[in-house]
Amino acid sequence: MKFSEHWLRTFVNPPLTSNALADALTMGGIEVEAVEAAAPAFSKVIVAEVLEVTKHPDADRLNVCRVNTGMSAGNAVLQIVCGAPNVKAGIRVPLAQVGAQLPGMIIKLAKVRGVESNGMLCSAKELGISDVAEGLLVLPTDAPIGTDLRSYLELDDKLFTIKPTPNRGDCLNLRGIAREVAAITDSDLLPVKEDVVTASIQDRVSVVVEASQDCPRYCTRYVRGVNATAKTPVWIVRRLERSGVRSISAIVDITNYVMLETGQPLHAFNAGIVQGSVHVRRGKVGEKIVLLNGVNVELNAEWLVIADDKNPLALAGIMGGEYSGVTNDTHDVLLESAFFTPEIIVGKARLLGANSDAAYRFERGVDFEITVAAIERATALILEICGGKAGAVTEVQAEMPVRAAIRLRHARVQRLLGIEIAQPQVRDFLIKIGCTVKKDGGDVITVVPPSHRFDLMIEEDLVEEIARLYGYDSIPAHVPFVNAGLLPATELRVSPTALRATLAARDYREVITYSFVERRWEQEFCANDHPITLANPIAAQLEVMRSSLIASLADCLRSNLSRQQERIRIFEIGRCFTNDGGQDIKIAGLAYGYALPEQWSSAKRLVDFYDVKADIETLLITRGAELRFETAQMPAFHPGRSARVVLAGEVVGWLGELHPALRQKWDFPYAPIAFELNLEKISKAGIAHYHEISKQPTVRRDISVEVLENIEIQRMLDAIWRRKPAGVIAVTPFDVYRGKGIDSDKKSIAFKVLLQDTDKTLTDEEIESSIKSILDVLQEEFDVTLRK
Amino acid sequence: MEKLETIVQEALAAFMATDAAAQLENVKARYLGKAGILTLQLKELGKLPADERPAAGARINVAKEKIESALTERRATIQEKKLEAQLAEESLDVTLPGRGAGRGGVHPLMRTQQRIEALFHSIGFEVADGPEIETDYYNFTALNQPENHPARSMHDTFYIAGSRHLLRTHTSPIQVHYMETHEPPIRIIAPGRVYRVDSDATHSPMFHQVEGLWIDERVTFSDLKGVIIHFLRRFFERDDLEVRFRPSFFPFTEPSAEIDMSFGDGWLEIGGCGMVHPKVLANVKIDSERYQGFAFGLGIDRLTMLRYGINDLRLFYENDLRFLEQFN
Question: For residue A420, what is the enclosing H or E element?
């Protein structure tokens, strides 16, 4: 909300500068977002009257004016050269006198094309109070000649923009803000004259409040014979403008003005179109209303409407109907001031997508004791500005809200805040914000909040009020003592921090991508035709929740390739979402381009499956559990180059080369290698358990066999271990050869076999027997031939 | 006997003339070998009268020692020179770059998250986690924001099509999950991704928050101030950092405060906090007469921007390697 500081200071005027006042409000809980000057600094500009305009002898576009400055005789009338097209005799305009400082210029005595000019007549733009120059700023004809323009237009005013929190609907009006300023700065509210208009006509409209639980109080009155085209006084227009409200017509301006002043939204109906009684009731299915903003609303019982005997006239507390509002032809006005409960208004304007100052206030809570005062104030202004005669107020009142008393234990204040605030001071604070306080015996007081506060319901609410008036700054910061019990630092889990460190050390860089992705990605990478879809995505390509991180990494690869990167190794840890409610965190990586950064002494080689497999092995090797890779297919991966990662017998993720079709579609020159692991499943770890190191020598034997191409190494190793060859402690493939000397459907594999006994040196016979049993099993199960 | 001295001088000169080990050993043989000049001298001792032999023998031995010592010295020198030559030949251009893989790095936001976790761990806060697709109950209702509460408009929520679920708008629901399953005293920190329908230079539809929660019998607002100020000073490693608490409103805390820290000439908002609202405690069946405590939520993105001088939030999610590489 925006308002004029001058206006505020008519209600409360603490001895504080604008900035100090803003700080006080902010630190009191009403955040001041901006304090702006109403106009930039300028000096020596006065109201002047143009007496006479004659053409400049030597310039077509210039005029020589004689201008009345209202000064004492001698220099009362000045000669000014002026180029503005709208200059004419009789108008009153701003005159920057010789010596005046305007934004960006200083006015000097000058000769313009040979004619002396004793100052400058100004446009709004030259004074910095408007962005557009529409010729001279023409002032009202009653502007007092000779007056300083700044004081005439109240340009030394400041505009405050505040952002009250949603619980402080009471600070959405000047009197409410003033009340708050008085409490925060410990100053007094200035007296306000409360208008009361006595009826001068007998007319009354009959009001039927059917929905009394939604509208506990409804006030209305006729004002007949108004001049709807009357001009809104400058002071109202100015205050409205400085609150960001455009002037529309006198009656609308007055209702807006009173709302800004008191917080009570008002509505003025064209009384001429109201047929019969005024009804306050819920909408009916089949009813429609066209609102002031042109929106057509189909009603039902969720909406509260103001209706006459035939038609809905307005959406209560939100917006008037297009046909029931006042126009320039309106003579008779039916003025409405009501209390609609927050419950019936809340969320409705949002539903319509409409901006409604009234709904904004009603849904936060409007003071239900101001209804009558506000209608009186508006009536008085209408009579003053538009003339007419007012009828008596018809007030229909049902069960009004009750402010329940709150018990406040003094000990509770100290226990929550951690400081002692004396009880009299506590009482003072509560009284300052309008509460009624009664002693309840012992250290308990009973507090009844005022009608304008909808947010004070429990003890803690009062503690907050006490704390903010005491000053959050005044509450000391205390570093608490903590129980020195140690937190677990388990070895049974590997933390994400450790995983990140490992991957970073393996040359992967962490990225963070959006959890919502393009629908197409889920299909292409995961064959997921039914991803979790957002109802309101910010963009169509961020529409579904991802079930895998790999497509996002591919996208990240693509964007970095377009930034001239050539070697890209990235990883991400993020949640993935599946239709069955799964929300597992995954850790995924992608490597692309050369295996190593280009360097002077290593051959260039593209990264491949086995490079990334080693990265996964490094990542998972510390778990103390068996790690295996099994051939398996997944939509994102090349069917012959992808594997399931199996840790301790459980599938924990995937590794593979991006499917060539996807690679082509995404336009990647080389094949990216990617993996994705389930974070929870790879986080479990075992505790290392020492076993004795054998003092016996280790013996190495190499064996080399030829085998059919389609036999996996893992199968051969599994078969060897099933045979439990005596003394064998390790079997590792160290060479795989294809080509010359080997059948085209075969490969040659060389194994390194390590043998060792725990307590004796192995004999040659024992060694040979073990090697033979390995060869036997390979021959029996895989039909290998031994290479010599 | 002048002859002996001549032999010594000749031998020394011959040694000096050699510059390779093999050559030196040849010269040695010429003097000290079986048929060497000095060996022959010794053999001729027998031809001398018996009374002259000891003196002559002694002179020959002196000569022999001189030659042997010169030999040893020359050997060492040649060895040394050989090593020098080898070293000279083997020397590298140490300024060429090292070989092998490079090094990756952790995302700056996660670096911040890890630092926050470590700092709070040091005063006994454990890390908690919770789902990102949430129910309305955990994201709002349990946190004292019933449907249609105007406070909900502070959060522009992403909803899941065809369900009552939503993307969590803050990390606060983790508090509720944790309190439902743990008894006080509770000290947790809960970092994570959160989502709001908002996208411009200062807003990302996905960003990071960290939630903190401390529930015990006597945790006060004054303690809250102490913990937050202390944390921020440690995080930014500046003991003169100014922090202020500004009254504010969150449905799930009472009293509530915004946390601002000094930045340049002004203040920057970096999070919200307050004493946990009794209704929130009641919702998780914690007795608010016995237990109380504070909760806070800080923007990880904002803290990271301030820490490293990053001026555009979007950089975190564009994943430009040239940006990420700056945080090794």
Answer: none
Which tokens belong to A175? Answer: 């009197």
Q: Which residues contact B40 (CB under 8 A, 6 or more apart)?
A: none
Place of tokens 């249609």: B148
In chain A, which residues have their Cβ closer than 8 Å to the Cβ of B256?
464
Q: What residues are paired with B206 via a beta bridge? A: B195
β-pairing verdict for A158-163 and B186-195: unpaired
Inspect the interface and report whether the beta carbons of B101 and A597 lie closer than 8 Å.
Answer: yes
How far is Cα B175 from Cα B182, in angstroms, rounded to an integer?
Answer: 10
- β-sheet bridge partners, residue A289: A297
- DSSP letter assigned to residue A393: P
Smallest Cα distance from B102 to chain A, Å: 5
| Subunit contact A497:B117, Cβ cutoff 8 A | yes
* B268 → chain A, closest CA residue: A33
Among A509, A514, A558, A559, pick the best mutation site for testing chain B contact (most B Cβ within 10 A). A509
Q: Is A54 helix (H, G, I), strand (E, B) or coil?
A: strand
In the stretch 559-578 of chain A, residues with CB closer than 8 A to chain B read: 559-560, 563, 565, 568-571, 573-575, 577
Tens-digit pLDDT profile for residues A61-102: 899 999 998 887 667 889 999 988 999 999 999 999 999 999
Q: Do B124 and A29 touch (CB under 8 A)?
A: no
Report the residue of chain A nearest B113, measured CA to CA.
A497
CA nearest to A430, candidates A410, A411, A415: A410
Three-state secondary structure call for residue B187: strand
Q: Tens digits of per-residue pLDDT, A402-433? A: 999 999 999 999 999 999 999 999 999 999 99
Give the contacts of B86 (CB within 8 A, at least 6 positions apart).
none
**Which bin fits B264, alpha (ψ -120 to 50), beta or left (φ > 0)?**
left
Which candidate from A346, A507, A536 shows the least CB-CB separation from B103?
Answer: A507
Contact (CB, 8 A) for B327 and B111: yes
Gap between the Cα atoms of A392 and A604, Å rounded? 95
CA dist., res. B265 & res. A243, Å (int): 28
What confidence tens digit (pLDDT) does each residue in A340-353 have? 999 999 888 888 88
Residue in B226, B248, B254 closest to A29 by CB: B248
Residue with tokens 């704390």: A467
Residue B151 contacts residue B142 (beta carbons within 8 Å): no
Is residue A363 within 8 A of residue A347, CB to CB? The reply is yes
Whole-number Å distance between alpha carbons of A81 and A90: 16
Token pair 């031809």 in the structure block, residue? B47
Question: CA–CA separation, B131 vs B173, rounded Å?
Answer: 9
The Cα-based distances of B239 to A473, B2, B40, B236, B243 in angstroms read 18, 89, 90, 8, 11
What DSSP designation does A10 have? T
Q: Which residues in chain B have their CB less than 8 angstroms from residue A545's CB? A: 133, 160
H/E element, A52? strand A45-56
**What distances in angstroms separate CA A214 from CA A302, A340, A363, A475, one per listed residue?**
11, 6, 12, 42
Q: What is the pLDDT of residues A190-249, one digit of tens each?
A: 999 888 999 999 999 999 999 999 999 999 999 999 999 999 999 999 999 999 999 999
Query: What average pLDDT is seen over chain A?
Result: 94
Res. B153 pLDDT band, cuts 50 70 90: low
- Give me Rg for the CA atoms of chain B: 43
Other C-beta atoms within 10 Å of A648: how many? 15
The total of other beta-carbon atoms located within 10 Å of residue A536's CB is 13
Query: Cβ distance B179 to B130 under 8 Å?
Result: no
Tell me whether 0.85 is exceeded by the ipTM: yes
Q: Which is nearest to B192 in space by CA: B117, B253, B260?
A: B117
Query: Degrees (nearest 5) of the Cα angle A273, A278, A279?
Result: 130
Strand partners, A592: A568
